[in-house]
Structures are given as structure tokens and as C-alpha cells.
TrEMBL record:
It is an enzyme of class 5 (isomerase). GO terms for molecular function: chorismate mutase activity; L-tyrosine binding; tryptophan binding. The lineage of its organism: Eukaryota, Fungi, Dikarya, Ascomycota, Pezizomycotina. It comes from the Eukaryota. Gene3D superfamilies: Chorismate mutase, AroQ class superfamily, eukaryotic. Keywords: Amino-acid biosynthesis, Aromatic amino acid biosynthesis, Cytoplasm, Isomerase, Phenylalanine biosynthesis, Tyrosine biosynthesis. This is Chorismate mutase. It catalyses: chorismate = prephenate.
């Protein structure tokens, strides 16, 4: 798990400066994973249920089947016990074989999970915009790198999921910093007001500029003498992904988390620890 926040220390996990640093690090992770994915063509067959024979799992696409099996295995080693990890297939999770880590109560209990939206955008909108066609169509299961493509997809999707659901940490930190204001907005059901209160347009602009620079830099061969050589990834598409999807849906996660922040707590639950 790519993290620099000690999730066993709730006060550090809710410190906005630590959260921002983690989000910047995740930009690197996402960018590198995307560059790996665009080595391969779209290979749309792997996203079509029933296109590849999966036996009894015929209702799943190859990528969904692979992702589900990965999550099943990763759940055995506690991946989804961490408060910053969210499964795409929660019904597939198993009881970990490792003893549980002692995580404190960081976030308020909630059921916000936008992974289906993330996967839909990634497969239907983003990949067609960035994957090369190499001047040919999908050549089929015996000729294409279906397994490698799906492996890269899973890395991309899990990194995007962590980045987007990290908005809950931002929301909890902001709630604690001005509880009176957020309680008023939540009780009024004012989603627009909550959205406005958590928006920082200047920071969003910085994020987009930084991400564009990273995509350009990481996607350029430093040994190339040709300054005009094509990069390894469509920089405009990466920037657009963040501007038109990642930032808005992260905000949606934050708003929906806060809308559940005042709901009755399950028996035995504790109030999240306070940020420093």
C-alpha cells in the first residue's frame, strides 16, 4: 500500500498537511500506472461480459473477474481492513489470515463507495481517449496482451479509488475544524453549501498544473534528443480526467460522507479522534 500517513495515529491521519502530501504522492502513483497501461491497446474485449470463457463466471468481464479474484486474495492479507481502502467487489472479501492491526477510529461509520462510478468512467471514457490503436483492431485472445492490460487496469483502478476516497479524510478534518458550521449545513440538507465550503479553487488549479507537468515529465524519455517527440501518454486526457472526474467525484465523496456524519452511531462505536 502506497502511503506515508501513519493510519494508526488518527491525529496525524486527519492533519490536512499530511493528507495533501499523501494526495500528491498518489498523483505520482496514478500517473506511473496510467503510463504503464497505455503500452497496450484498448483491448475492449476484456471489458465485455461473456467475451472470454470464464466458466461459471460468465456474467463477468475478464477484467472484472480478475479484479474480483485479486481483491479476494488481497482481503486475506488485510488490505481492506485499512481505513483508506475500498473494494470494488465487497461481497468477494474473505476473513484475513493475518491478525488485525489496531487501527483507531479515524472516520465516522459510512457507506460511501463510488468504485462503480470510477470503473465505469475509466473503462468507458478514459481508456478510449488514451489507449493507442496501433493501426489495427483487437486481434483476439491468442494475440493480445489481455492479462497484462488487465493487470495494469487493476493497479490504476485501485490507486484512483484510494485517491478519491481519501476525500473522506479531508471531510472529517474540515468537519472537526468547524463543527458548528457543518452541523448546520448537514441538518439543513444543504449539499450545495457543503460543496462550496470544501471547495478551494486555487488548490484545484495547482493540482491540475502539477498533474499536467508530471504527465509530461514522466511520459518523456530523458535520453531523447528530439524535444518534440511524442510522449508516452496523452497529457490532455490525464489532465481532463482529474478536472472533469477525479476532482468532482472526490468532492461528491466528501459531501456524502458529511451528510452521514450526524447519523446515529452503531452500538459500541466511538467518536473519531481529533486532528492536531
Amino acid at each position: 500500500m502506497d502511503t506515508i500517513i501513519d493510519l494508526k495515529d488518527a491525529s496525524k491521519a486527519l492533519d490536512l498537511s499530511n493528507i495533501r502530501f499523501q494526495l500528491i504522492r498518489l498523483e505520482d502513483t496514478i500517473t506511473f500506472h496510467l503510463i504503464e497501461r497505455v503500452q497496450f491497446p484498448l483491448n475492449k474485449t476484456i471489458y465485455q461480459p461473456g467475451a472470454i470463457d470464464l466458466g461459471s463466471d460468465k456474467n463477468l468481464s475478464f477484467m472484472d473477474w480478475y479484479l474480483r479474484e485479486q481483491e479476494k486474495t488481497q482481503s486475506l492479507i488485510r488490505r481492506y481492513e485499512a481505513p483508506d481502502e475500498y473494494p470494488f467487489f465487497p461481497d468477494a472479501l474473505k476473513t484475513p489470515i493475518l491478525k488485525p492491526l489496531d487501527y483507531p477510529e479515524i472516520l465516522y461509520p459510512n457507506n460511501v463507495n463510488v468504485n462503480e462510478d470510477i470503473k465505469r468512467f475509466y473503462v468507458e471514457k478514459f481508456l478510449p481517449a488514451v489507449c493507442p490503436d496501433f493501426g489495427r483492431g483487437d486481434s483476439g485472445e491468442r494475440a493480445e496482451n489481455y492479462g497484462s492490460s488487465a493487470t495494469c487496469d487493476i493497479a490504476c483502478l485501485q490507486a484512483l479509488s484510494r485517491r478519491i476516497h481519501f476525500g473522506k479524510f479531508v471531510a472529517e478534518s474540515k468537519f472537526q475544524s468547524d463543527r458548528e458550521k457543518y452541523e448546520r449545513l448537514i441538518k439543513a440538507g444543504d449539499r450545495d453549501g457543503i460543496g462550496e465550503s470544501i471547495t478551494n479553487a486555487a488548490v484545484e488549479k495547482q493540482v491540475l498544473a502539477r498533474l499536467r507537468l508530471k504527465a509530461q515529465t514522466y511520459g518523456t524519455d530523458p535520453s531523447s534528443a528530439n524535444a518534440n517527440a511524442a510522449g508516452k501518454i496523452n497529457v490532455d486526457a490525464v489532465e481532463s480526467m482529474y478536472r472533469d472526474f477525479v476532482i468532482p467525484i472526490t468532492k461528491e465523496v466528501e459531501v456524502e460522507y458529511l451528510m452521514q456524519r450526524l447519523e446515529p452511531r452503531p452500538t459500541g462505536g466511538k467518536e473519531p479522534a481529533r486532528a492536531r
